[in-house]
């Protein structure tokens, strides 16, 4: 039997970007842990598939179409959730990621970047974290309890080539996590916590082309990543689930404002 300290059973957890790979992985993990999951995504077809998966074994889950960049959409979602379950205990700001055009090729420089792509990727990752925190965090402030988890990145912790907009946005997410953690604790009490995880390198749809060649071999970028990862491997997406659950549980009751690397040691390795 799992230590009750780590339990999230019965907690109402809102997961933005739940139709995606990372959001879906965490949602399924939370369902198994007994949480009530509100799967949010901008695409209805993604939600239909996800909610069917989440409820297949008797889990409690609903899907709500919502746009993390639209306050009115988020407020509508918040009203639906409170009407159904009466509260919001957890917010996982998973929606985000890089966007096509925002990654520079090896032969491009900063001055080749399209400003429209910069604005799109920074808006999605930064405001796509701030806006849900603003709407759902207000309910947590009224309750004087709740846990918000944001997604930062290795690119926020040290300079990384080719992804200027994504890096800047994820650095902003890390800073905002610390600021909001301070704000919530000082004004609404020690039961409202805000943390983030900084994933290392996981091969997914968004980064596959820069990490894996068409023939399945590793790109030069992948080889550099693995050379600077003491565990000498990429992560499995499911390896983020435990860290997120821990930060949402009572086991982390005195932890706020943390940006936790889940990276096989990449962020601490000097290369020597």
What does this structure look like?
The structure is a single chain. Strands 3-2-1-4-5-6-7 form a seven-stranded parallel beta sheet, with helices on both faces. It has 272 residues and is α/β, with parallel strands linked by helices. α4 (115-143) links the parallel β4 and β5 (146-151). The termini are far apart. The chain has helices at residues 21-32, 44-55, 71-85, 115-143, 154-157, 164-188, 208-211, 220-227, 241-248, and strands spanning 12-16, 36-41, 61-65, 90-93, 146-151, 192-199, 259-262. The protein has two domains: 4-200 and 237-263, 3-Layer(aba) Sandwich (Rossmann fold); 205-234, no CATH class. The model has no long low-confidence stretch (mean pLDDT 96).
In short:
The protein is α/β, with parallel strands linked by helices. It is 43% helix and 14% strand. The chain contains nine helices and seven strands; from the N terminus they run E-H-E-H-E-H-E-H-E-H-H-E-H-H-H-E.
Number of strands: 7
Range of strand content: 5-15%
Q: Helicity, in percent?
A: 40-55%
Shape from CA axes? globular
Question: What is the CATH-assigned architecture of the largest domain?
Answer: 3-Layer(aba) Sandwich
The CATH homologous superfamily of the largest domain is named: NAD(P)-binding Rossmann-like Domain
Number of helices: 9
Query: Main sheet, how many strands, which sense, barrel?
Result: 7 strands, parallel
* Overall structural domain count: 2
CATH topology of the largest domain: Rossmann fold
